[in-house]
Amino acid sequence: MSETSRSQAHVHRESPEGAPGAVGMRGSGARRTAAGVSELVQAALPLIAEWLPTQRWYAGKGRAITGLHPVVGTPLQVGDPALLHLLLRVEHPGGGADIYQLLLGIRSEQPTGIPATALLGRLGSGTYDGATLYDAVHDPELTGRLLEHLATGDRFGSLSFRRTPGSGLPSNIPGRASTAEQSNSSVIYDTSFILKLFRRISPGTNPDLELSLALSRAGSTRIPRVAAWFECRLERSEPATLGLLQRYLPDAEDGWELALDQVARLKGDPSPGNFAIEAHRLGRATAEVHRVLARSMPTARLDSAQIGLLAGAMADRLDSAVTVVPGLLRYRSALRAAFQQLTADHLEGLPVQRIHGDLHLGQAMRTPHGWVLLDFEGEPAKPLAERRLPQPALRDVAAMLRSFDYAAAHLLAGSRGPDPELAHLAAAWAARNRTAYCAGYTAGGGADPAATPELMRALEIDKAVYEVVYEARHRPSWLPIPLAAINRLALTV
Ligand SMILES: Nc1ncnc2c1ncn2[C@@H]1O[C@H](COP(=O)(O)OP(=O)(O)O)[C@@H](O)[C@H]1O
Ligand SMILES: O=P(O)(O)O[C@H]1O[C@H](CO)[C@@H](O[C@H]2O[C@H](CO)[C@@H](O)[C@H](O)[C@H]2O)[C@H](O)[C@H]1O
Predict the structure, then answer these.
(1) Closest ligand 1 atom to the C-alpha of 377?
(2) Among 75-89, 287-301, 408-422, where is mean pLDDT lowest?
(3) Which of 135, 205, 255, 440 is deepest in the core (most CB within 10 A)?
(4) What family does this belong to (predicted)?
């Protein structure tokens, strides 16, 4: 890191209790009382610079950090422990920058029960000399405090906590950090609520809040009801969504885990259970969500120019993916040809609407009352404005089809050396469930994917290209899964 900046820091002087600007350590001596937010932020920056790139949700992996600039710092609890909310701008070479949300706990004594990966270290000399800085997501007392702010609808400077009417929020429940593999961080409050803290922040309403609220207000039971959220006004535009509190689904099973469990038993028993029934129901649930979204949010129909733009955007994404994973280059001309087949002849008037945007089995939870869909944030790598654009609803269908392929490929990845029998069983499992999902989608009132094969193929390729980049950045050992799909899809063009 070449630079950390004091000048750009904009810190809120209001504090929830105590003297203005105080984040001081209660009962630990005068030198630790009434310390300013700016001083704390400056003391924390070197520790943050070391810790940030090690986090699963950090999107700048592999890129150097050229600057760390506090954007807004807000004390949410003063004393010992203290809770500091911090929006931090992280700059990369070439002018790229992202804003991250951090919730920092500060305790004079080493906190107990905090995983090593959540400890940033000890603050150096000054007011906070020797205090431990850590990711407060793992501190039940501090995350309980966050729930209280949501329950009371508090406001600190540009940070606002908002409740939905009648959400009946309790205020005295400690939170526990979710252990799920995820792009953000979540905190669970007994079996009642789950708070997602978005990590990479963009100005504007996050589609997860926007779509979940629209579906909640329309009475849909296919998503966990929205109870509250919090946001920050970064610029003059719409506030940026920082966190989303929804009902927790205590009896739910994750679709990805269910699918893997079935796939793992394929070799011993070629017909273990019948996931295809679940795949069909999931298709129906997807269609139902699409219908409600089409009723409650703007829709449009594509003209020939927009069809050209759709195909052009896919080709552009492919080109930038080739720069990240050069192994894609050999498929480039075949994949571009697939995109060029998206023409006005068969797609003019195609309806577009708001969609989930990153649908996969891990975003589907099977509950005693049927499938529920989660995480309407869209693909985290895309700019927020792009994620909020109306899209062909079949984009979600294509994404889920890729997920059946992933589950089957996961089985093969675990086998020692080539296993043709297993490969056959896995491919048959994926094909069966893909067909069942599409049939369920059509039966539920969605467009028949078989009616637009060129569109479906292009959408699947586009998703697999995204996955190639995602895996290269986050899970390089999984890269062969989308690459194998690209190879297969290229052969069909
Ligand atoms: N309302 C909920 N009830 C139960 N579990 C949930 C709920 N919301 C999320 N989860 C769990 O947390 C995981 C991550 O949630 P998700 O919204 O996908 O986060 P991210 O955007 O960070 O990936 C999900 O896969 C699921 O296991
Ligand atoms: O759930 P997220 O919003 O964090 O989505 C990202 O991570 C997903 C993996 O956790 C990733 O999904 C890809 O891997 C899944 C298996 O782990 C597979 O079922 C999906 O089909 C595949 O796309 C998703 O793409 C990414 O945005």
Answers:
(1) 21
(2) 408-422
(3) 255
(4) Belongs to the aminoglycoside phosphotransferase family.
**Mean pLDDT over residues 419-423, rounded?**
84
Query: E strands along 26-181, which residues?
Result: 67-77, 82-91, 97-107, 119-122, 132-135, 155-156, 159-163, 175-177
CA atoms of 461 and 438, how far apart (whole Å): 17
- pLDDT of amino acid 316: 97
Tell me: pLDDT of 381 over 90. no
Q: Determine contact, residues 119/105, Cβ cutoff 8 Å.
A: no
Q: At what angle do helices 480-491 and 394-413 cross, to 10 degrees?
A: 120
Measure 360 CA to ligand 2 centroid, in angstroms: 6
- H-run or E-run covering 227: strand 226-232
Which of 360, 460, 481 to mutate for ligand 2's pocket (most ligand atoms within 8 Å of CB)? Answer: 360
Distance (angstroms) between ligand 2 centre and the Cα of 441 equals 21
Q: How far apart are CA 71 and CA 277, in angstroms?
A: 49
Q: Residue 40's closest CA among 3, 15, 66?
A: 15
- Residue 23: pLDDT band (50, 70, 90) is low
Is the bond into 298 cis (omega within 30 degrees of 0)?
no
How far are the Cα atoms of 167, 217, 318, 427 from residue 213, in angstroms, in the given order? 13, 6, 33, 38
Q: Which residues line ligand 1 (CB under 6 A)?
A: 178, 180, 182-184, 186, 194, 196, 224, 246, 248-249, 252, 254, 362-363, 374-375, 377
Residue nearest atom 14 in ligand 1 by C-alpha distance: 182
- Convert 225-260 to b/e letters by CB count within 10 Å (16 or more is b): bbbbbbbbebeeeebbbbbbbbbbbeebebbbebbb
Which residues, 6 or more positions from 323, have their beta carbon under 8 angstroms from its beta carbon?
none
- Residue 467 banded pLDDT, cuts 50, 70, 90: very high
* Domains and their CATH numbers in the chain: 1-249 (no CATH), 253-491 (3.90.1200.10)
Q: Nearest 5°: phi and psi at 102?
A: -120, 140
Ligand nearest to the CA of 245: 1
Residue carrying structure tokens 């280059």: 329
